[in-house]
Every structure is written in structure tokens, then in C-alpha cells.
Amino acid sequence: MSLVFSAGAWRREAAELLGISANGAAFQAKVIEADHVIAAGAFNDTGFAIPDRAVVLAVTGRVLETLTGAASWALGVAADPQRYGNGIGSVADSTVVGVSGVPTAYYGATPLRISAQGADFTGGRLRLAIHCLEMSVPQM
After folding, report:
1. What is the domain extent for residue 80?
2. Is the per-residue pLDDT at 111 higher than 90?
3. With 87 labelled, which of 21, 94, 105, 112 sits at a CA distance of 20 to 30 A?
């Protein structure tokens, strides 16, 4: 587990849920959670990312402060901006559970993309969580 200082408080960045190791190789299920302050514009890429070579099972989120400007929003990545949901509510306490239809592998650190729908964003704040699997190679 690591801690990140965000929005004036310390928060867990990744929580190990399951760890299996054999001869140094490891398999871990993780949740990487962070807050994202919405900047004005048509879309925002998060300052945290899906880890390199991770397999994503889902991305979940909650609107902490109402998203202003946009009528709704979409959650995904640059290559597929609606992969984890679209038409998501923008008022405080709206949630999204974007389950991958098929677990998706990412071969490079990949930020999440939050896209405005209806008009550009003018503000707001989200808490997002990446639910993923990570593998590591055997030790020498």
C-alpha cells in the first residue's frame, strides 16, 4: 500500500486485495484510487494512470462535487473515451461502475479520460478507482 496526499488529506493509492507468488513471480489484484479535480474544457486526462501491463477489470467512480458545464460525462481512455461508461450523471453522489466486458490489457501507463457531454466542463471533482490485475516476472 502507498499513500498519496490529495485534496488536503492522505489517501491510499493502491490496496493489495490478493497476492499470489511462486518462485518470485507474483500476481496481484489491486485497486488504485485517486481524486481528480475537473479542469475547464472538453475532456480531462487524470494525473494517475492504469499501470503498464495491467489487466483492467473495471473502473468505478463517484462525483464528489457536482460537475459544472457538462450535462453528463463519459469515462474511458484516449483510444476509447466511453469504454467505462457514458451519459453518467454530473450531480454530487452520482456513481459509475464501468465493468470491462472483457478484461482489457494496457501495454503502457494509460491515464483515464473524462469527457464532457452536452457542453464543456467548467469545474467539479471526482473520485475514481481502477480495479486491475498486475503480474511480475520470476526473480533471478
Report:
1. 2-136
2. yes
3. 105
Name the DSSP class of 89: -
CATH number where 117 lies:
2.60.120
pTM: 0.84
Q: CB 123: neighbour CB atoms within 10 A?
A: 13
Q: Which of 61, 57, 56 is nearest to 86 (CA)?
A: 61
Which of 110, 115, 71, 114 has the alpha carbon at shortest distance from 90? Answer: 71
Cell of 100: 470491462
Strand-by-strand arrangement of the 72-77 sheet: 43-50, 110-117, 72-77, 80-88
Q: How far apart are CA 19 and CA 3, in angstroms?
A: 19
pLDDT at 11: 62
